[in-house]
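Trying the structure run again after the queue cleared.
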Amino acid sequence: MDVYSCPIVNAGQRLLFSIIFDATEREQYREKLYLEKEILKTTLLSIGDGMVTTDKEGRITAMNMVAETITGWKQEEARGGRFFHEVLGWSMKKPGKRLRIRWQECCRQER
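Done. Tokens:
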């Protein structure tokens, strides 16, 4: 159960207004969502190819061990606000501009 309360004044009297509701369904949904995310994370991180995920701005949110080997970056370093084109561009020893443009094209198309 969840309880939300706030003090109110009604006709000069201070009262406590409360809403009580059953949160069982929400908690069950939250647990299912968490388990699905963990399964997805485990699957993505175990893929045999290099895998990097980013947020909408292009900051790295996750990468698997193969991607670490390819880029020379550890996930912990790359996740610290690094952009995809920075990490992959540096590993290819050339500017990341072309990669940045390709990444932006993919985001516009919501791939």
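The two ends are 39 Å apart (CA to CA). Worth checking whether this holds up in the mutant runs.
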